[in-house]
Amino acid sequence: MWNTPFVYLSAVLIVLAAYYRWSRRKMLACVANMNGPPALPLIGHGYILLKYTSAEVIFENMDKLSSTYPSPLCIHFGPLVHVVVYTPEELQIVFNSPHCLDKSIQYHFLHVSKGIFASPTHIWKGQRKLLNVSFGPANLNSFVSIFNEKSALFTELMQKHVGKGERNFNHEIALCMLDTIYSTAFGVNFDMQRTPDGEYYLGLQEEFLDLITKRIFSITMYPEFIYRMTKAYKRETKILQEARLLSTKVMDARKADSITASSRDTQSDSGLNGKKPQIFLDKLLELAKENDQFLKEDIPEHLDTIIFAGNDTTATTMSNILLMLAIHPDIQERVYQEVMEACPEENQFVSIEDVAKLSYTEMVCKEAMRLYPVGAAIGRVATSDIKLDDRNTIPANAVIVCGIYQVHMDPKQWGPNTDKFNPDRFLPENVARRHPYAFLPFSGGPRNCLGIRYAWLSMKIMIVHLLRKYRLTTSLTMDDVVIKFTVLLKVANGCQIALEKR
Ligand code: HEM
Q: Which CATH superfamily is domain 33-501 in?
């Protein structure tokens, strides 16, 4: 009995496990006193998070954990140590530390590791410096014509739904954003709102995010060699190939190098008062000529990254804002009045100057982003020990989860009734009283969202076009709204509204 191979194997495994635990002793000691429920051997807290049931239950479980335990919370997901932080003070430390700039392991599942969204810090630094110019005010102001054109088309297409009762408009909103982002990325009018390409892309995106969410919550699917044996991996590879086909199609057709003014002319940029759009593809090609950080063959991946980072985030936020306007008719009326003061004619071009006048509208959008931040949980890795306070240090190599949803719902920052929709929270005097890291819809620190200005301009222009023509209504109340987590935080009900002609 004692000589059987089984005994040898068991002994080897025990020694290896003991060595593994010993090699992590410093890390485990560091988190030993952090808050959290009891962990089981091997699977840690996997018993709470392991089973992916539905996107709604996942969100509920995460929310329950963070409302039961004060920050920082330690979650052992199999062998991975996660420290979840959700006080503004801790978030400020993490977001501004040069040792917390790397994205966590889960970002690799997205397969955009060359692009700026998930690239390792040493590559990201150069990319960010160069791309900042493309996302700077001068460049983005040149997109105003595209934002207007696409929002005007969206508003026109909505006409057929007037008086037809309530339905979920998530898809139409996402198509408009996709149409916009493809135009600003490629300088080609794909006409995504009226052709099957848009529907097709959105279907792929939805399926892809579902697969990734399932993988994030299944620790057994983390090792690449195991995941590659699954059906999910095969489907994911196919989805990525098909999505990439859309961008490479354009790249090939236009022979990348020879992008000239004539190709940009396919983008309608006249008649709407705008400047000529400085599209991302041209900018990336310029960068590829002069900088090693941008190889020409990687440009499709960079463009996919920008589309991935910008499309679903803006579309989901826009859906949430419109739903909030429909649930709160009095607030919608104030936004409408502001819109009509800034830019009253039905089909009038919305300029940068008009957008700057929409201060109440901005407060309303911010309150929608507080309640439903699409980037609700941001993952980083500690590349060195990070001291949070005298009691708590995040050990090197731990995954850090930044709890944006939790800090947005913190009564210490926002007072009682944090689940109430109240745009006055963003009156300047109220903002001044809060910690600057209490509101982080675009993340914080040097690796925050690169597309903030793009998002604001495109969303405000869309609101003006839509509200000038239609009143939004819904039978939903705030109590009916259910949240789910599919990489992004989303409202499970969708943008369930009806349109009335003004
Ligand atoms: C309302 C709309 C948007 C929201 C709420 C939003 C939010 C965010 C958040 C939370 C992050 C950090 C993600 C993380 O670390 O996991 C991020 C990063 C990023 N966003 Fe946005 N985003 C929006 C729109 C856009 C748009 C329109 C673009 C581009 C056209 C864009 C481009 C990016 C890029 C490139 C990054 C990565 C930045 C880096 O790592 O340096 N975003 N965004």
A: Cytochrome P450 (1.10.630.10)
